[in-house]
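Q: What does the assembly look like in three dimensions?
Context provided by user:
Components: two
Sequences:
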Amino acid sequence: MKSIAELEKIRQETLDRVAYRKDSGNETRVVVGMATCGIAAGARPVMLAFMDEIHKRNLKSITVSQTGCIGMCRLEPMVDVIVPGKEKVTYVNLTADMVPRIVTEHIVNGNPVLDYTIGAAGEK
Amino acid sequence: MDFYRAQVLICGGTGCTSSGATNIIERFEEQIRKNGLDKEVKIVRTGCFGLCEAGPVVIVYPEGTFYSRVRADDVEEIVNEHLIKGRIVQHLVYKDKGHEDEHHLALEEIDFYKKQKRIALRNCGVIDPENIDEYIAFDGYKGLAKALTEMKPEDVIQTVLDSGLRGRGGAGFPTGLKWKFAAASKADQKYMVCNADEGDPGAFMDRSVLEGDPHAVVEAMTIAGYAIGATEGYVYVRAEYPIAVKRLEIAIEQAREYGLLGKNIFGSGFDFDLFVRLGAGAFVCGEETALMASIEGLRGEPRPKPPFPAVKGLFDAPTNINNVETFANIPQIIINGADWFKSIGTEKSTGTKVFALGGKINNTGLVEIPMGTKLREIIFDIGGGIPNGKKFKAVQTGGPSGGCIPSELLDVPIEYDTLTQIGSMMGSGGMIVMDEDNCMVDIARFFLDFTVDESCGKCTPCRIGTKRMLEILERIVKGRGKEGDIEKLEALAKNIKATALCGLGQTAPNPVLSTLQYFRSEYEAHIKEKRCPAHHCQALLNYSITDKCRGCTACVKVCPVAAITGSVKEKHVIDAAKCIKCGSCVEKCRFGAIEKR
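A: Here is the predicted structure of the complete assembly.
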């Protein structure tokens, strides 16, 4: 270790891995429905796709967690994306290949992918 | 660095390890592999969370769910429910005593943590102590970088001096002043020593810091070395702390690999390296001159001061010695500045202090509170009060060098000077709570028994004086106390305090003096009335059977000396002459019919 820059690099690299042990409330949350219905409908590959995408893009302050069944089993796999200060967006009938678009457009650029949301599903 | 969606933090401190944490970690690894979650869930073995009473402790992030008293059999349920389906296992979540219906999901909401302020323990239970990157992520080595690249040694000393930090080992000497003296000594070689020879019965603060955040000590010692001009450091740690020793050695190795120890740290031209020395567990080796003798390979015996270590210490070179907890505060003071540290605590006692809560208290464990917090808050708000509805009687602080504080002084703020004024002391941070069943004479006897055992024997007052005091106390608790014993104890105590060579002897009479000050009537009852008011001293108890007796004969069968007689369905009688007061009958009786008086 010869410089503060090197130290700072290690700090930044490790920080996203440990950050949510530090303070909560400020991160974007991706909540995947992982009850029996969700898992049966294929929620696991969807969740893994989220994790993969977040890792690939090296995104910070994001947690991926699971939740139980909220009752609309026919719309599973369902995922809530909660960006701090914004309204919760619920995506339905997801598959793994839809995930990169949600991460790019919604989490990175702040524009929810309306085609995949629960509102869009209701109109069909 | 891989992205994990969940992290399972499992306490790997000594307390939780002895209640089965290692087994739990293995089960988690096994279950997580079995369910194919190893790419998603990370298991981290951390240091102590503090609430040892509720151990083994498991925390699952990102939710921060706090599971307590987890058994290996519960692991499958946590993995299946929480980690796979995202459903929190409610029945394993920690609940505050008295509010059992409220489920607190996060650590910070629990009564035990609410009033705490964690500086020395900030990373304990939060990071993986065996991973230097995690320490760095939580601002680790930032203080060292700042000190070496932006500050002159005298600026570092001035900052520590301004912060008001005082030695956390017990005596409370201003840390900055100590550094200033060592810096002022001119020599080719100087040493930095960390005193991790924690010996007070029931105290385990330093162990927790070393187990949970060893890099904090490595970083602080390097900063201190820079400040006083030392290039070599020693950590003197008890061999009885195997986990602490192992993690410290890992930390030193990792710091060397990163160049945070060794030559030319941060390109500043400053060299520093650290070595671990194991102590064999002699209490007196916590005294600085005895400690240095022990590092040199000599008998662990103190020597008169002056010369002070800052002038002539380890290997006769100028040396600075600080305690583990003192060091743990240093990186934070350098990063955040003296004013930040001064804003916590009181005017003369700044910052926080870690206490090991033990004895008759609901939440046994480690707490870190701002100085000035009242004893009452620690015992009743953080500690959760006394178990089994018993009445609080006294709290012992400062270990064998401290004293007992009675209930009428519970509103005294915790500061170095106030505790000394009331006949106790800050000490290293042991805090033993006693209830109405504890006999204060016996407590004094217990601590004196400890110091007699641990006296190195070099000076007469400590070797012989404490022994005589112990003999008197043993006589009193056995019911053979004589008129004038109290006065003899007081005279001996005064002389030992005035003439003993080192801190161990000078403070050894404190437990006797403070109990005499606040609980003199208990001594008098033992001596004059041959009665133990707490019904604790076996020799002074008389067992008798009351009218609650149903004549079940259970006690007759269990009495080892056939002192109980009586026929079925009739009240039994104890023959006091035969009774050896073993208490077996009391334990056996289902009707609470046997009284100790």
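Follow-up: Residues 6-109 of chain B form a domain with the Glutaredoxin fold (CATH 3.40.30.10).
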